[in-house]
Amino acid sequence: MATTVGSEGDIKTLITNFVYLERDAIAAYDATIERLENPEFKRQIEEFRSDHHRHLSELRDLAAQHGAEVPAEGDMKEMLTTGKVKMAGIAGDSTILKAMSSNESDTIAAYSSGAGNSAVPPEARPIFERGLEDERRHKAWMDSASS
Fold first, then answer.
1. Taking the model in full, what pTM does it have?
2. Chain centroid offset of residue 136 CA
3. pLDDT for 40-71, tens place per residue?
4. CA proximity to 119, closest of 37, 5, 3, 2
5. Which helix (H) or strand (E) is 72 found in, with range?
6. Which of 40, 32, 12, 15 is nearest to 104 (CA)?
7. Taking a C-beta distance cutoff of 8 angstroms, is the pair 98, 142 a contact?
């Protein structure tokens, strides 16, 4: 499912939508950790989830600077991101990681759009660039570990 997050024309909406994205991602990571059997995979996914908590913290700070809404929960997409993981749990760790990799594709697209969005002030751009780097690293590991 293609995402439009990161293409918003105003910074407040963009930040709010990224907060939703991160909350959805954290929920998917929680579901993944609950279902993985391999302890090394769990450890790595917990580390990646920490990156998402850092992203959320940075977005909260950015929201405070720009007066953007900070939703307390994820949105409807959370059902999709966690649902893929829950269904994949039936087939084992490799399939779970493949489901998470597909989630990461949307997150990469969002951060890529956000990093290049003209609505993002220059001083905030590094937040989106770091997020993009993290998401690419997450997906690369998931692709490698699930093959």
1. 0.89
2. 11
3. 999 999 999 999 999 999 999 999 999 999 98
4. 5
5. none
6. 32
7. yes
